[in-house]
Amino acid sequence: MQAEHGFAVEVLILPRFSEPVDRYAAHDVHQRVFDAAAGLDGVVVVDLLEHFAAVEADLRLFGRDPLHLNERGHRVMAEILVPRVLAHLPDHERP
User: Fold this and answer.
1) Contact in structure between 95 and 15 (CB atoms under 8 Å)
2) Minimal CA–CA distance to 53: which of 23, 31, 9?
3) What range defines the domain where residue 18 resides?
4) 8-state DSSP, 26
5) For 47, phi and psi rounded to 5 degrees?
């Protein structure tokens, strides 16, 4: 269906913004998402924990609360996602 209709499927795992990376307690949840997607043709799973951790070791600095991004978190999320979205566009549609 992806090829027929021209779209890609990416499942993004957004971390909880509740603790520093070195004390992150939800790795098992991330693994369950990878396990659930295993074997699904054309589905790419991307764990955003490593992307946020590369910017700041304390995930709390990206969230208003453990589940919602603050302004900085939204900016980092855009920096992560925009290149991924642009990579799927045909050359003539890229800025």
Assistant:
1) no
2) 23
3) 2-93
4) -
5) -90, 115
